[in-house]
Specification:
The chain is built from 14 helices and 15 strands. With 406 residues, the chain is of the alpha/beta class. The protein has two domains: 3-62 and 315-404, Alpha-Beta Complex (Aspartate Aminotransferase, domain 1); 67-313, Type I PLP-dependent aspartate aminotransferase-like (Major domain) (Aspartate Aminotransferase, domain 2, 3-Layer(aba) Sandwich). Strand 1 and strand 2 form a beta hairpin. The longest helix is centred in the N-terminal third of the chain and has 20 residues, at 114-133. The termini are far apart. The mean pLDDT is 97.
Length: 406
């Protein structure tokens, strides 16, 4: 790096002051400044070491700076990084095949962010509703669920039930019906002849790791089939091994019409997302109707392919299932009058408190462990799937100390 572009080494306080002065104030991060990471561990600018139990909201399932993914990034960056979709590239077909292999759905459409992929799924559903189901143009309805989180674009916050995501951002996009989560009868009542799709998270991560009753996904899928409605699952946070299966919907015997993935699809190296669907759904798109300059770029595709290979070769999905089950069982032994519930699946755990969770997260940071509050009262624990039993034991002792001192 040339001298004029070298990053000066500042203190934590100086970095925070710069960020507060020049950045938008749309986040409320914990007050540490990370400069490097490896596996489940990160280091701040003061030289302190922390275990990362957030995984960038499940984007680094493969761990920080995984050497195989890093090598792929370097190799591909030296060849070609971006062609746009005006031309074909040699990496995209291989990613299509990899996504077909993990999903069973015949086609994929790569995008960049998870929010962009959710927008893509909604556009697909509406076009399918009009051209295949025969819904009058501009009348298609998508059913979504209370406490959902699919992103923060205008369309996605239009059906959010979280006031802080919506306040001041109207007018909103019409065409969405919001029903209670884990309530089959409410969904049944909401379906109309104009319903084109149901879009749901199989586990509501941002809402505090809310897990529906066993059989709920099966009932939702059956209702969709009965009414010729697309069953679309957002697996951006829950997919790619996080819950102990490749996808969270696989805990029940269902087959979605569309799957949305992102985050861990690139192991945290690069923004890559995708929508997967069969021919009947994906086939409604014609040239020029949808696209993204960076979507399907060769650098992103190469990185995503290796990120998926790492999940398979290192058996991270299986590790999530076995280590996560034991970790959850230990966390359920915690004793505190402030614990409302400890719930989870695989390596996705929420500890709900009856007091704000932020102070507990700050106390855990002081103990060398990083996690974040969600929906104010829930501590989310989602370490990288490369975590070892010894590291989980270490984490449990810190959680036990902080929770029992509340």
């Amino acid at each position: 790096m040339s001298a004029e572009h070298a990053t000066p080494h500042l203190s934590t306080r100086e970095y925070i002051e710069l960020e507060e002065r020049y950045g938008a104030h749309n986040y409320h991060p914990l007050d540490l400044v990370i400069e490097r990471g490896e596996g489940v561990w990160v280091h701040d600018v003061e030289g302190r070491k922390y275990m990362d139990c957030l995984s960038a909201y499940s984007a680094v399932n493969q761990g920080h700076c995984h050497p195989r993914i890093l090598e792929t990034l370097r190799e591909q960056a030296a060849k070609v990084t971006l062609t746009s979709r005006a031309f074909r590239n040699d990496q995209l077909p291989h990613l299509y095949k990899a996504l077909r292999d993990i999903s069973g759905l015949s086609r994929a459409l790569p995008m960049n962010s998870g929010a962009e992929a959710c927008e893509t799924a909604i556009k697909l559903a509406r076009k399918w509703g009009h051209t295949v189901k025969g819904i009058p143009e501009d009348r298609a309805e998508v059913i979504v669920f209370e406490n959902n989180f699919h992103g923060r674009t205008i369309s996605l916050i239009s059906f959010s039930s979280e006031p802080r995501y919506r306040k001041g951002f109207g007018p909103f996009t019409p065409g969405f019906t919001v029903v209670p989560y884990d309530d089959v009868e409410a969904l049944r009542r909401a379906i109309t002849p104009n319903t084109c799709a149901v879009l749901m998270e199989p586990i509501q991560a941002e809402a505090g790791v809310l897990i529906p009753k066993d059989g709920y996904l099966k009932q939702v899928a059956a209702l969709c089939r009965e009414n010729k409605v697309l069953f679309m699952v957002d697996e951006i946070q829950t997919g790619l091994g996080r819950t102990g299966k490749m996808f969270a919907f696989q805990h029940e015997d269902v087959r979605p019409d569309a799957i949305v993935v992102g985050k861990a699809l690139s192991g945290g190296f690069y923004p890559v997302s995708a929508v997967m669907a069969d021919d009947e759904v994906m086939g409604v798109l014609q040239p020029g109707e949808h696209g993204s300059t960076y979507g399907g770029n060769p650098l992103g595709c190469a990185v995503a392919r290796t990120a998926l290979d790492v999940l398979r070769d290192e058996k991270l999905v299986e590790r999530s299932a076995t280590l996560g089950q034991a970790f959850l069982a230990r966390l359920k032994t915690l004793q505190s009058p402030h614990i409302v519930e400890v719930r989870g699946r695989g390596m996705m755990v929420g500890i709900e408190l009856d007091i704000p969770a932020r102070p507990a997260c700050e106390a855990l940071m002081a103990e060398g462990m990083l996690c974040k509050e969600t929906h104010d009262f829930v501590i989310r624990l989602t370490p990288p799937l490369v975590v070892t039993q010894e590291e989980l034991d270490w984490a449990f002792e810190r959680v036990k100390k902080v929770i029992e001192a509340l």
